[in-house]
Structures are given as structure tokens and as C-alpha cells.
Amino acid sequence: MILYIDTSSSYLYTGIVENGKIVVEIKKEYNHELSKTALPEIVSMFEDNAIEPKEINKIIVVNGPGSFTGIRIGITIAKVYAWSLKVPITTITSLEAMAMSSINDMIRVAIIDARREYCYASIIDQKDNFILKPVYIKYEELKEKLKDIGEYKIITNDKEKVPISASKWESYNPDIAEIVAKFKNKKEVNPHAINPNYLKLTEAEESKQSC
User: Fold this and answer.
1) Among 34, 60, 115, 199, which one has the highest count of C-beta atoms within 10 angstroms of its own C-beta?
2) Which regions of the chain does DSSP assign to beta strands (E)?
3) What is the pTM of this model?
4) Are 61 and 87 contained in the same domain?
5) Which domain does 154 fall in, by range?
6) What's the CA angle centered on 153, arms 150 and 156, to 5 degrees?
7) CB neighbour list of residue 55: distance below 8 Å, 6 or more residues apart
8) For the segment 18-48, what is each residue's pLDDT rounded down to a tens digit?
9) Do both 84 and 20 map to the same domain?
10) How many CB atoms within 10 Å of residue 135?
């Protein structure tokens, strides 16, 4: 069984996959309550489905970009679990998860609004290769990169904030089984080496640098 955890937004996306099929999953928005509810919800997910923690043989956790606080919550839960029970663990980005949840029938542009005319974005082709690796970028710069792409679809939960046109739009709804299938064989990492992948400085760090 593989445990998937993503708390990089206001949503808790988590689930347990066995032999390519979802055993149980949670897709629920908690907003500012996520820090209080994520761990109890995951514990309940195990208990309600009579799954023992030792039955998990790998963890896949999203390490960003997204909500600074949210990312830390998921990483902390995953690291403690992996370290204490000696379970292999690996990380993926939220933008990869977004792209892999979409059918690869055309080029996919995963976008998370980052405010102040910036976004987090990634461009992935039909063979799941990066055209643009996950990056913190101005919308205007992203528009320039998309000029020569041709047709593409945008995957986001921030459509009203994304000032880019596209031939197709998708609201992000994670296909946890598909995400796990894509990354189940990704190389494991030492739990202690896992850190948030913010792609940008925190506001405190930005303020410090500007002083």
C-alpha cells in the first residue's frame, strides 16, 4: 500500500492506493483549519478502514509549491511517519501532481496563482516530459513562453486569477491513483533530507533581504 499526502493548498488531498486502486481517499477543503485537522483526518482514514500503519510500504508527499504553512504540515506528517516506521518516502511537486491528474492528450500547463502578477507554473508535454520545470514566474513571462507552444490546456483552481488564454481549462481534481502510478517507482530519499520546495522566498525572507 502507498500513502499519498498533499497539504500544499487549503485542501487535504490524501489517500491509500493498493495495486493501482484507491482503497480510501480524502479530498476536502479545510482552509485555516488544515493545520489542526490534517493529522486527525489521516489517522481516522486508517482507523475507519482497519488499515495498520505498518501496512504502508511507501509514502509520496507533495513538498510544494503552494501554501507555506500547508506544505510544512504535510511534510512533517510524512517525515515522522517514514522515519519512525522505516517506510520509504519520496517527494513530488504540486505542479507535477496537477499535470499527472489530467489526461495527457495535449500539452498541460499547471498554474497556481502566487499573487502580485506572479504564479507557480510548469509546462509538461504529452509524454510527461517537462517543457518548463516548476518555477515561480511572472504571468507576462509565462505568456511569452507559451507563444510557441501551440494548443495547450491550463490546469488550475485559480481560473479567475489567471490572465492567460487557453484552448481548454481544467479545474484541478487530483487523481490520486494516477499520481501514485506515475511516481511509485521514483527514487526514495532520506526523510531528514526532505524540505519544502517553495520556489520562492517567504515574505519574511524577502523583507529581510530588502532591508
Assistant:
1) 60
2) 2-6, 11-18, 21-29, 58-62, 89-92, 107-113, 118-124, 130-138, 152-156, 168-171
3) 0.93
4) yes
5) 103-171
6) 140
7) 1
8) 999 999 999 999 988 999 999 999 999 999 9
9) yes
10) 17
The model's pLDDT over 195-210, given as tens digits with 9 standing for 90+, comes to 999 998 655 445 444 4
- Identify the CA nearest to 96 among candidates 19, 191, 1, 180: 180
Identify whether residues 118 and 83 lie together within a single domain: no
* CA 42 – CA 64 distance, rounded (Å): 19
The grid cell for 69 is: 504553512
d(CA 124, CA 126): 7
Do residues 67 and 150 both lie within one domain? Answer: no
Q: Is there a single domain that holds both residue 117 and residue 181?
A: no
Residue type, 153: K
Distance between CA 166 and CA 159 in Å, rounded? Answer: 11
In terms of domains, do 134 and 187 share one? no
Locate 32 and state its grid cell. Answer: 485555516
Q: What would the grid cell of residue 29 be? A: 477543503
